[in-house]
Amino acid sequence: MRDTGDDTHLVFVYGTLKSDFHNNHLLETAEFVGEDRTRDHGYTMYAVSSRLARFCPAVRDGGEHAVTGELYRVDARILAALDALEDNGITYLRREIDLHSGAVAWLYFHIDDAETLLPDASPVHIDTDTGEARWIRTPESIKHEET
Q: How many domains, the chain?
């Protein structure tokens, strides 16, 4: 990870950790840096269905889309909480990526092959003009957030 100049880390979030989504409370004391997107268009965004939840966002290598999201500066305590939420190393793997803004940040990549990937699920919106994938709120995904 490129040095941020202090004991903080840049984390790029693309799903339920974004503003107005149910896991954003974990970032309430983090610094919101701004909206951004991945520099490369080599990703695929999925909705994931598992025994615990339906319509969780997932990004994997391979594909032809940039991923849009939000960039946060977090301390070690928040990063540990995010690692726990994402089951880092088991369900998701935190890895560095380059962003369009020039920043280098952590992004959680989905690695659990036991879960069902739903590439055409409604919470994943692909902008055909820009080739960007965005996680959006839909009535069905909101219903699953509340359960």
A: 1
